[in-house]
Design goal:
about 130 residues, 5 strands, globular, alpha+beta
């Protein structure tokens, strides 16, 4: 099973640069709307782990950075949407299940974030 995890703060009319200053951390990605796209503003940090690591390890990699600023994050939920997005690829017939421990789920809920998991079934074996 391969996976990756990102945490995003997004919304209409928000300024991602303010999140960088307020949280004191640099994002991996910022998206700003332009005349040529329909994007919402987005501030994103990504897991720094390789795809073969467990989903829980990916979540913990991000949460270690967010835990010191969790109370600040909760304040953003009034004007922005907070999301964890996890993409999991596994070959057809692969029987491993995805488990996320209660501590991770509790922190995600505590900061007011949603959790989206995208399962992608591939043909063939994982490398």
């Amino acid at each position: 099973m391969d996976c990756w995890v990102v945490f995003t703060i997004s919304g209409d009319g928000i300024n991602p640069e303010l999140f960088t200053r307020h949280l004191g951390m640099e994002p991996n990605r910022i998206v700003s709307p332009t005349e040529d796209n329909d994007y919402k503003s987005l501030w994103q940090i990504s897991s720094s782990l390789k795809g073969k690591e467990s989903p829980e390890d990916h979540f913990m990699d991000i949460l270690r950075r967010l835990l010191p600023v969790r109370e600040k994050l909760k304040k953003f939920t009034k004007d922005a949407k907070l999301d964890f997005y996890c993409a999991v690829s596994k070959p057809s017939g692969y029987s491993e299940v995805l488990c996320i421990n209660p501590e991770i789920l509790s922190v995600i809920g505590h900061i007011g974030a949603t959790l989206e998991i995208d399962f992608q079934i591939t043909s063939g074996e994982m490398i």
